[in-house]
Structure prediction request, 473 residues.
Amino acid sequence: MSSSARDRVRTLLKTTGWLQTDIDTLGNDADLYVAGLTSHATVTLMLALEETFDVEFPDSLLRRRTFSSVDAIVEALAEIGVNTEAV
Amino acid sequence: MTDWIAAARAVGSDVAARHAEDVDRQARFPKESLAALKERKLLGILIPERDGGPGAGIADVVSVCHVLGQYCAATAMIYAMHQIQVSCIVRHGGDSSWHRAFAKRLVDEQLLLASATSEAGVGGDVRSSVCAVEEKGGRFSLAKQATVISYGADSDGILVTARRTPQSPASDQVIVVVPKSGASLEALQGWDTLGMRGTCSNGYHLKAEGEMAQVIPKSYADVSAQTMLPTSHLVWSALWLGIATDAVARARAFVRAEARKKPGVMPPGAVRLAEATSQLQLMKSNVVAALRRYEAALGSEDSLSALPFAIAMNSLKTASSQMAVQIVGQALLVAGLAAYRNDTPFSLGRHLRDAHSAALMVNNDRILANTAQLVLALRDDPELLA
Ligand SMILES: Cc1cc2nc3c(=O)[nH]c(=O)nc-3n(C[C@H](O)[C@H](O)[C@H](O)COP(=O)(O)OP(=O)(O)OC[C@H]3O[C@@H](n4cnc5c(N)ncnc54)[C@H](O)[C@@H]3O)c2cc1C
Prediction:
């Protein structure tokens, strides 16, 4: 693996149609809901993250805030044991 | 029984019940019951003491809806929808001076609030808006093709959902409190429906103007998940339970009259009445359990926005709406023609027609599709007494 978790999250957000704003124009702390992420898409995003990072989100992290920005997602991934630094 | 429930009982039996048939037949606003509810100060009970109200809780409002539903479902629905709007202001108006001043007016003037979430172009998808808040120098304007605004014409204010800005995506919404003085309503569509006729849920072209301070500061996504959705499903379910409760009471009265005529002979409808009674108990337990769950979650934003909570509140609505129709149907079978006729003390036509609105008031298929998405992510199955 050569890219950081942050990059991989950004790639995921770029290649799927969940946002209405191009992720490249958004910072890591930008509010993804303002960028068009819907509640529905949040669940799909979570499933995609689980697949990409081979993790499971516990119920306690399944709330809107967890997916509100790239930084928030990376923080949650770190919390469930993903090495979020570039390897 | 609290004073509020006693007052609701009095309004229900003395006023709402007396006019329910006429309200239904003419599809007219139940003005007598609403006047009685205002007179007994039941419209502002949720307002906290700091803003001049008595600070009742959600359990009180749910109980009042359950009582009113037993007499006139349209009155109960109007009361329920009003309290959903009040909850949003009380819980999310925060320390905004505009909203606190408005809350005080809700008590002092016993204002009645309506809701404009549905919109042409998005149908029942309340989490999407077409219209947007347009800001100019601290003031806003918005225009909405509102497909349904119950008692819009008789309300004193409307809570309107809209996109945060004209550039915002459909899902990035806010909710705005619009007193009637800042709104104009041009009627688009009437309300000649199967049931819930007294809610007068006409369609309107709504135009609103006012100060930006009227916009509830929190995003509508949070207001909806934490307050509007759970409160709606609770108060609706409670009044649907009220409809079912009265239907079973009518069926029971019918069976008892039969039993009196032939002492010692079990009336044929009695077994089915037992079945209906058991279903009613199930429905009631479900409402009460969901209410307790909401009360337990109230102190924590995390609990309120957690997935299992959302699933529980969605499931409450889909289950209650179906059970109401089933139970009224059972009661209809118990009392037979006496219930089918529109001119007996056992008539259930109105109950059945009103109950059928439940599944489409935010369509169950839509809610189930949403729950289906959520269960994909659900992990733990909580303990029995968790
Ligand atoms: C008594 C009553 C009072 C009301 N009062 C108000 C009010 O005061 N303010 C307000 O804003 N609204 C109000 N509404 C409207 C309500 O909130 C819903 O918007 C409305 O019931 C949905 O209308 P619909 O069936 O035309 O639209 P939709 O929900 O769009 O449903 C139409 C059909 O499409 C299907 N469908 C559409 N999308 C999906 C999906 N994603 N998944 C599954 N199925 C789907 C449904 O099964 C249904 O058959 C009221 C409704 C009732 C019955």
About this structure: Chain B has three domains: 2-111, 114-214, 220-385. DSSP finds 13 helices and seven strands in chain B.
